[in-house]
Amino acid sequence: MEGSCKLVVRLRVLIIIKKIKKNENETWRHVERPRGKFYRKFWLPENAKIDEVKASMENGVLTVTIPKQEIKKSEVKTIEIN
C-alpha cells in the first residue's frame, strides 16, 4: 500500500493528512486497512514551539515531536490596603 503523508500547523492546530493509494500489484481476498484519506487535527497548547516541530516516519509509524517553552511562573505581589 502506497501513500503520502503531510503535516501542517495552522492557527495552533496540527493537521495530519495521509492519502492511501492501492498498489496495483497487491492481491488480497480481504483487507481491513482503509483506503482513501486519513485526516486528523490536534490543538496545540499555548506553550508549543511551533517553529521547532519535527516529524519522522519509520516502518509506517509517524512520530511527531513538539517542544514546549518554559512557562515562567508569575510573581505574586501582596498589595497593602490603607
UniProtKB/TrEMBL annotation:
Under Gene3D superfamilies, the record lists:
2.60.40.790
Q: Which UniProt keywords apply?
A: Stress response
SHSP domain residues are 1-82
What's a Pfam family in this record? HSP20
Against PROSITE patterns, the record matches this protein to: SHSP
Q: Highest taxon of the source? A: Eukaryota
Q: Which family does it belong to?
A: Belongs to the small heat shock protein (HSP20) family.
Kindly provide the name given to this protein in its UniProt entry. Answer: SHSP domain-containing protein
Which species is this UniProt entry from? Solanum pinnatisectum (tansyleaf nightshade)
